[in-house]
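CORE FACILITY INTAKE
Project code: CF-77B
Contact: R.S. (postdoc)
Sample description: multi-component assembly, two entities in total
Requested service: structural model of the whole complex
Turnaround: standard
Below are the sequence entries exactly as provided by the requester. Do not edit them.
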Amino acid sequence: MDYQGNVLGTVTTATGIAILPNTGGMPLLTIVGIASVVTGVTLILVQVGVTIHKRKNG
Amino acid sequence: MSLVKIMVVIAVFNILAITGVIYAIKPKPRAADAFSVQQVEIQKPDTKLPDYTEGSPESLQIPEINLSTDIQDGVYKPETQEWTLSSDSAHHALITPKPNNQSGNTFIYGHNKPEVFGPMVDLQVGTKASITTKEGSVFHYILRSVKDVEPNDTSLFEYKGPAILTVQTCSGAWFEQRRLFTFELIEVTA
């Protein structure tokens, strides 16, 4: 068996492969997740700011 | 709706989103448990033919989409079911034949990222590609088919026939599938 791809003959037997390479980039879910986290944190900060502003201005 | 209720809804949504992100970053191979590692036959070219030519792949070019990427060696580890995979270059699966003019399926794979195979996703049949080898020869191919398969569909490694090139990247909103571009060899130039 030659894992370097060298030619050994007409047919060579190699160890079985169970799965193809996982060549995914950034999944859509990751993008949505990051965007939702940023949105959520922003909304919370806005609400905190509004609350502080209301308290200061009675 | 009160502020508290809004914040609870946002928090729940964020927890779900983060859970999804974790799942997406570390996807589990589907049906991996049902697939046992077994012996498969990998065809190697017949070097006895007089006009046999092969070369170690160095780079892949697809002029139509301005794609040019380096090719590194790719190794599969049976114990972890993982492949060599870099973020900025493609890989030639060393258990498959080198580009040659006789037979076998040369398998090259890479990330679905702009700097690797991202631009290939919508490639049309008939597109030409070429592989430059370290020995200086250039193998010219033409795209014959595009198909999406499940990650555990490894039938391409059992190919027996004229020399072809299969390029793989991931597809689908969750990158849950593997997109296979099958190229036919046209000619080899020095």
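Facility notes:
- Confidence is low (pLDDT under 50) at residues 1-15 of chain A.
- The first helix of chain A runs from residue 28 to 56.
Invoice: internal transfer
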